[in-house]
Every structure is written in structure tokens, then in C-alpha cells.
Design brief:
alpha/beta; Ubiquitin-like (UB roll); Rossmann fold; 2 domains; 10-stranded mixed beta sheet; 6 helices; 25% strand
């Protein structure tokens, strides 16, 4: 810097500009608060309109002989429609806006036949319910319970869910014994999967199987129709087709030696053992 010159001190910013900045800040703050309040007020009025206006009211079932036209059900064949409609009873007579569809779906999934469900609001006032039902894979012969006095039949799906049809239905399915409704679901599922694997393995021979005892999933016992007789065959947990074919190929020999035998053990490959006597098939 040349001699005789002094460095200029920065001029302080005029108070006018500083005040202007604060004024803008206050303006936008107030504008934002007004916008928020007006938005909340508008939403409140809109919500009030959706709740109170009759155009959004789901018709009560009593007005239409127990069935509301504003509850549309799809995909139901064996599940109880009355049970499903009962779940939506609280929604009849009030606005569609208030229907808690997530909660309603959770309630639907608690019904035995319902594997999956969707609940949708169709404006202005319709609830649409789409059901995917469970698929039975076998009959199950259940022991007596406190609720049902004697032995009784039901259906079971691949995941071990016990199903009771509410309408007349015809199923051509094998019968399982050795399953209890009180046992854990994962145990029932494991037993059913073992049976399904066995049926796939024996293929066309499954048509002769009338009943499968799964009390011990590591030793399936099948009731096999052979001529006029029904024999109990202990088939184990593997090589089902090979063991069953070996039995059929050597049944005449077995019958000749033990005509009174009703239970045969096939668990040792290449060997058929009647109760109390071994019969070796070559």
C-alpha cells in the first residue's frame, strides 16, 4: 500500500436492509402459518363432509333383507358368507370413509377358509372384498374333542389348516388319520407335506390308496385296496414307489403264505414282512 494512504474501514450495512430482511422473514412465517391453518381447516371441512354426507353412507343390511348391496364379495365358494358379512357389520349405516380396511383384512384372515383377502373402497359407498380360499388336499379323520363329541371328518390344506365346508361339496381326496386339531400347526403341515410327497412319488398307484395314517410321519401306513381286501402297508419315509411296486409284484406270494395277514411292513427295501413272520421277496 502506498505511503500516506490508509485502509478504508468497511462501511456498516445500512439498517434499512437489515430491517427489510427481517420483514421478509416475518412475512413468510406468517404466510406459512396462515397456509397451514387454512389447509387444516379445509381438510377438517372435507373430512366432515365425507363423514356426514349420505352419499357416502354404506347401506345397512337390514334395508335389503340382510345383505347390503354396498358390500361386494368375490372369490367365495366354501367359506361362510355370513361370517364374512358379520365382520363388516359395524360399517353398515355409516360413511365409507370411516371403514378401517386394514383391520377388516386382518379379521378376514382369521377365518379358516381364507388364505388371502383384499378390501377396497369403491367410492362413493361400496366396499369390495376379494377372497382367495385355501385349497383342501385331503380329508382328515379327527378324534373327539370337547366341542364335537365323536370322531368326525374335516378337510385339511397343504399348510395344515383344518377346514370345515359350510356348503355341500364333493372332493375326491385321500383320508388322513393320526392328525389332531390340538397339535401345533407346523406339526400338521409337516405331516401333510410328507403325505403329498408320497402321493407324488407313487403316481398312478395313489388311486388304490384309501387312507393314510400319519401318526408317525417317519413311518407312513397306507390302507391299500388289493382285490377284495384292504391291507395296511407300513411304507416308511422314502422309496415309496419302489416299495409299493415290490409289494404288488409279490402280493400273490404273500397271500399264499399268510392269507390272514392284514398289516405288512415294507420299510426294508426288497423285503415284505407280515406281522409275526418275515416274507422275503426276491
Amino acid at each position: 500500500m502506498p505511503r500516506g494512504q490508509t485502509r478504508e474501514k468497511p462501511r456498516p450495512e445500512p439498517r434499512f436492509w437489515e430491517g427489510l430482511r427481517w420483514g421478509r422473514f416475518v412475512f413468510w412465517l406468517v404466510a406459512g402459518m396462515l397456509l397451514m391453518v387454512s389447509t387444516l381447516f379445509a381438510w377438517h371441512r372435507t373430512e366432515e363432509f365425507l363423514i356426514k354426507d349420505d352419499r357416502f353412507r354404506v347401506s345397512e343390511a337390514d334395508e335389503f333383507a340382510g345383505q347390503s348391496p354396498n358390500l361386494v364379495l368375490e372369490g367365495i365358494h366354501y367359506a361362510s358368507t355370513a361370517q364374512i358379512r358379520h365382520i363388516f357389520a359395524e360399517d353398515f349405516g355409516r360413511s365409507l370413509y370411516l371403514a378401517p380396511i386394514i383391520e377388516r383384512r386382518r379379521q378376514l384372515l382369521a377365518i379358516d377358509w381364507v388364505e388371502d383377502a383384499t378390501v377396497a373402497k369403491i367410492w362413493p359407498k361400496t366396499l369390495k372384498v376379494t377372497i382367495r380360499e385355501r385349497v383342501p388336499v385331503a380329508f382328515v379323520h379327527l378324534p373327539p374333542t370337547s366341542r364335537e363329541g365323536g370322531w368326525h371328518f374335516a378337510l385339511i390344506d397343504a399348510d395344515g389348516y383344518i377346514l370345515r365346508p359350510r356348503v355341500a361339496a364333493k372332493f375326491t381326496l385321500p383320508v388322513l388319520t393320526g392328525i389332531r386339531e390340538t397339535e401345533p400347526l407346523y406339526d400338521r403341515k409337516a405331516r401333510v407335506h410328507r403325505v403329498l410327497n408320497m402321493l407324488r412319488d407313487i403316481g398312478s398307484l395313489a388311486g388304490q390308496v384309501s387312507e393314510i395314517n400319519v401318526a408317525d410321519p417317519n413311518n407312513l401306513v397306507i390302507a391299500e385296496h388289493v382285490g377284495d381286501s384292504v391291507l395296511n402297508l407300513m411304507i416308511g419315509e422314502e422309496n415309496y414307489a419302489e416299495r409299493l411296486q415290490n409289494f404288488l409284484a409279490n402280493y400273490d406270494q404273500v397271500k399264499a403264505r399268510r392269507p390272514d395277514a392284514t398289516t405288512l411292513d415294507l420299510r426294508i427295501d426288497g423285503q415284505i414282512t407280515a406281522v409275526g413272520e418275515g416274507i422275503h421277496a426276491q
